[in-house]
Sequence to fold (257 residues):
Amino acid sequence: LPPDARPGQFFQILLEGGEVYLRRPFSLVARLGVVHRFAVRVVGRGTSAIARLRPGDRLRLLGPLGTGFPLAPPGARKLLLLAGGVGAAPLASVLAAVAQGKTAFRTSDVAIVLGIRRSEEAVLARLFRPWAEPLLAVERPSKDAEGKVVPPGAFPGTALDAAFARWQELWAEPVSPEEIAVFVSGPKPMLEAAFRRLPQAARVYGAFEAPMACGTGLCRGCVVETAVGNVRLCREGPVLSREVHFPHLAPREGDAS
Fold:
């Protein structure tokens, strides 16, 4: 394996033995020594097979692939990580890089908002906890016997709603939008909503999800249309910027956010 991977890049994982014939893409959560960490949500036959693996089973890894997040966004001194569900994985790799001194930010410069659908998905917060504690936003929160939201302190709503509601509380000092870089990762509707609602002056980058058969740009199964033409998420992405690729989604001057 290569010595390092840029946060936001991914690996194509193939099981040996012929049970699953196509590779599956997974973002790298962190590299700790020789250990590479990935987060897997079971959604079908391929991920079910991966979930049944035991120590000693063999995998074939292809990567790191794609384009990751910028480690020093121009003009930014604060960083907001806005994650939805398993979109936490590539953003955890960003935080790991920050903690290792590989970016222009310190851990105290980073705020994290993790949006989940149900309270039981709060386990995803563990991906960040070696380095920081995310603000949890739960769309369908559970409540205890006293009617309090579970888990305690979670915001009842989406990650984007939580970011706007707690905007001034995310950092210890006041910060203006032009000083903030926002990295977003999650389902496509979440990314589009973030691109539309986040302040125009903020530098916003999103990690897009797509099925990928090859991961190298040959099959062209992950092409998306952008302002600069069709791009392959496995080569020119998965990280794309609002400013370059989706400027039509940026809020206009005077829009209320």
